[in-house]
TrEMBL record:
Species, as recorded: Geodia barretti
Organism ancestry: Eukaryota, Metazoa, Porifera, Demospongiae, Heteroscleromorpha
Pfam families linked to this entry: 2-thiour_desulf
Name under which the protein is recorded: Uncharacterized protein YbbK
Amino acid sequence: MKIVISACLLGVRCRYDGGDSRNDTAIKQKETDELIPVCPEEAGGLSTPRPPAEIVGGDGDDVLNGKAKVMTADGTDVTEAYLKGAQHALQVAQSHGATQVILKARSPSCGCGDIYDGTFSGTLTTGDGVTTALLKRHGITVTSL
């Protein structure tokens, strides 16, 4: 099976802080499935490392609807980069015929079910990241690690 996966889960150093989120479960999945790594934030044009960002005013669906923004801790609006990266991830999934995607938990782009609340206080709230919301709108199953 072809599965699109957050590159950071496979050990790629593309997290906002220049690190990775290597996950042994994800690494082991390479034995049975074809994993296609993607980093929506880098694909959207953001550098690594980069300032931390959170969705302010809602979740990924709200960003897609123009009702919320993705902002860095220093107040820079990076919404367009997140939208561009989400579109890239969707195109990758569709071009490979992937109907399942595994993304990094709690991320403003990849979070699935829980994301940080936009206050930069470490508080979680219910919601999806921008990429997750877009993929779900297109019928792709998203889980997080």
